[in-house]
Amino acid sequence: MKKYVVTCDYNLENLVIEEIKQKISEATEIKQFENFSHRVSFCVPNFDEQKNKSVLQKILKLRSIHSLIELKGSFYLENPTLENIKAKVMEIELPELKIATSFRVTAERYGTHNFTSMEMAKHIGHTVILRYQTPVSLTDYEHNLRIDILGSFVFVGYQITDDILSHRQGKYNKIERVFHHRAATKHSLAYHLLTLAKLKEGESLLDCTCGGGTIVLEAANIFGNKIKILAGDMHQKAIEGTKKNLKINNFDFVELQELNARHLDETIQNYVLENGKIDKIVCNLPFGVQSAKQVNMRGLYDQFLTSAEKIISKNGKIVVLTMRQGVFREVVFMIKKFKITKEYVTEAGGLYLHIFVLEKL
Ligand SMILES: C[S@@+](CC[C@H](N)C(=O)[O-])C[C@H]1O[C@@H](n2cnc3c(N)ncnc32)[C@H](O)[C@@H]1O
């Protein structure tokens, strides 16, 4: 059996578990890793070389994960000093390092310890050199030995991914970018929002506060033109940026226009839609934190939802990401046009964000 640990967005581990269940039929024992946030673990059988490779490729195509580690060992320590960690790591079999041309160590630390993650990386690197005489290369390494300490829990494995997969800049699920919006949504979060919208072939999707277009880029990358994708923003800079991002990826089937999310019923007529309605609205609403002008969020959310209700199809859904969860929830209850069917809390860039899934009453 091979055991993997994936890192992911805070508090969305169950959604990651769902994606693994759905896409990696070989995976078993899929669960939050030792009850730690940001981490999910699972096992896959050790097949022949070719099958191992194809399973690994499927894992690397997962859209909700940030990095992938093949686990080699884990332990709890009553007194987690560098010496005690080193002694336990010495007991873990790492035969790949014996024959490797070079390696490096990457360490992460969470909790209160009397050493830094750099010191831990150096210490463990030294242990490996003494044990196998394998040279270190920080840039051109064959194996990246990953060691994490979370309180008194330590795990060791090989980090398989160099790129952060959620940036979509590596080999898998690659999306080109010319323009970056300063409040851009993480691609892994965009994926979760789209999954929660439960889009079906032939349906229409609108992101009415598209910024640099992360959500529609992710949707176009997943669905191609099997769904109708519409994007808009009230700022010309965002429209121009999204246009460039769509063009460089050849997503010319995505429709883009300047619009105001406060008056969706007025702008939506400009889109050619079969039933004149939108099936799913998925967006990352402005928070009013980074913009220089103080916008009245209550008014914006009220007008957005009131106008959205007029254009959304009967069984439609609205999935939003917002930091202003209190105001958003109050507005939903005040206007009485939608019910909240799901709510998740997550984090990005040190901000706590809420995901709301709404259905028409
Ligand atoms: C949080 S950002 C969206 C980021 C985007 N998802 C991305 O990844 O780049 C919010 C966007 O809402 C836009 N916006 C603010 N008020 C709006 C309104 N009334 N109508 C349409 N767009 C609006 C802003 O211009 C900004 O681009």
What does this 3D model show about the protein?
This protein is an alpha/beta fold and 361 residues long. It has two domains: 2-165, VC0802-like; 175-360, Vaccinia Virus protein VP39 (Rossmann fold, 3-Layer(aba) Sandwich). 32% of the residues lie in helices and 29% in strands. The chain has eleven helices and 14 strands. The protein has helices at 13-23, 49-60, 82-90, 95-99, 117-132, 187-196, 214-223, 236-248, 264-267, 297-311, 325-335, and strands at residues 2-8, 28-32, 39-44, 65-76, 103-110, 143-150, 153-159, 204-207, 228-233, 255-258, 278-284, 312-322, 338-348, 351-360. It has a seven-stranded mixed β-sheet with strand order 2-3-1-4-7-6-5. The chain has a seven-stranded mixed β-sheet with strand order 10-9-8-11-12-14-13, sandwiched between helices. Helix 8 (236-248) links the parallel strand 9 (228-233) and strand 10 (255-258). The longest helix has 16 residues, at 117-132. The protein binds S-adenosylmethionine.
